[in-house]
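User: Earlier you gave me the apo prediction for this protein. Now I'd like the version with flavin-adenine dinucleotide bound, so I can compare the two side by side. Same sequence as before, with the ligand SMILES added.
Assistant: Got it. Here's the input I'm using:
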Amino acid sequence: MLATNLSSSVSMATMACVHVDMVTNLVDEDITHVSWYFIITLTVVALFVGSRKVYTNIKKKMAHLEVIVIGAGPIGLTSALIAVQSKRVNKLILYEEVSRFEVENRGYQIAIQSANVSFLRSFGVDFDNLEGVWRDGCFYTRAGIYLEYIIQILPFYSTEVDLKFRTKFDRETCDVIDKIVGRKLVICCDGSAGMTSRHLSLSDEHIQHSTGIYGAMAAIERNKHTPVPTPEKRIHNLSFDLSAYGNLSYEEECRSNFTLKIFGNSKRRCLALAVRKGDSNVARSLKTVLDKSIMRNVFLKCFNTYKSSEEASISDSFCLNNMKFSPRLYEIKISQRIESVAYISDNDLFIITEGEASRSLNFNTGLDINIGLKGVTSLQPFIDMITVAEAEHSIMEALIFKMEHSDKICNDFIKFGLKEYMFL
Ligand SMILES: Cc1cc2nc3c(=O)[nH]c(=O)nc-3n(C[C@H](O)[C@H](O)[C@H](O)COP(=O)(O)OP(=O)(O)OC[C@H]3O[C@@H](n4cnc5c(N)ncnc54)[C@H](O)[C@@H]3O)c2cc1C
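And here is the structure of the complex with flavin-adenine dinucleotide:
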């Protein structure tokens, strides 16, 4: 009996064990199933996310755009040089309304500041192979020399280049651009009188900022000279005695704070005279009295006194025939295009303005090309940003980045520009 009970309890225990095992197995199986489902789902999700990421990365890596530059001035060609070196750009088209010969023979002098020299070197400009002179880190050359050099090196990069000289960009060209498939960037570098951004539907509105400085310009053309690059010369704390001009007598003012700058090449000598707002009676008179002979004599005297010792003096009669000058002092202003960046979603087209098409001075400092060169320092990151930008917010981010950089250049120039370019 005891044995029977024992055996039945054993068998019950065994059954219980079997049951527990079965339940455990069932639970284990369920857990295993759940785990498998979980793992498989996770794997599928991970694979999906991973492949999407890989796909997006490949797509981003493969993304390209076409760049169209309008204008083969110093800023247009520098923009073209930056664009052809971007791995993002598969084709560059440049429109220039005048001939290549005309571009390469631009006779005026440009002076590239040392920061921009380093920037241009990083894009392969070999200053050792350019004819020009160095002074205090600045490189002085004829504009045509710089332009010719860039035109020559553009085809050496892997980007396809199509240079269209003697081809004006107009409304009809806009239709050609619209037909290009895929993303495009148009860089308008057609100078201060350029109209192309208007054709591309950017607003023509400009805002004028005062620099708080008054100035006057003169240019002396010496046609018999060859245009030899010549470093600039600055003379500070000048005063003028206007007592010879009737009642303009200011003997009490021994020192005014005029700054004179002589620059340009040996053929075309330029003089820039600048004085801070509200400086003196002499300045006030030169602003208000419109007597050309006063200004002519001021510039003639300035040139003959401060020219370099190797240069010949100029006579009164030479001055009459060969010097152009502002008849009085005027307020120096920088004009800034309000809309300098845009995106047209229908055509997948970005438009920006650079150089004097974006901002220009009503004065010549001899260093004006540097304002435009500063603008193109943000071109490469901008190209990178817009090539991969898909969502609205990334497109906006790129536009804001460029717009803020453009504003910064203008604000910096108002605060420090003339100080750096003239008064230091
Ligand atoms: C006579 C002169 C003397 C200067 N002297 C000095 C100096 O001593 N120092 C200094 O730093 N700077 C000087 N500058 C200014 C300096 O050259 C400018 O800062 C510089 O030229 C600005 O370059 P940019 O490329 O913005 O425009 P720009 O040089 O004006 O180039 C614009 C280009 O666009 C082209 N273009 C215009 N419209 C169209 C169109 N619809 N289709 C196709 N092409 C078009 C024009 O033909 C031109 O080639 C001088 C400029 C001039 C004109």
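For your comparison, keep in mind: The chain has three domains: 1-62, 65-205+338-423, 208-332.
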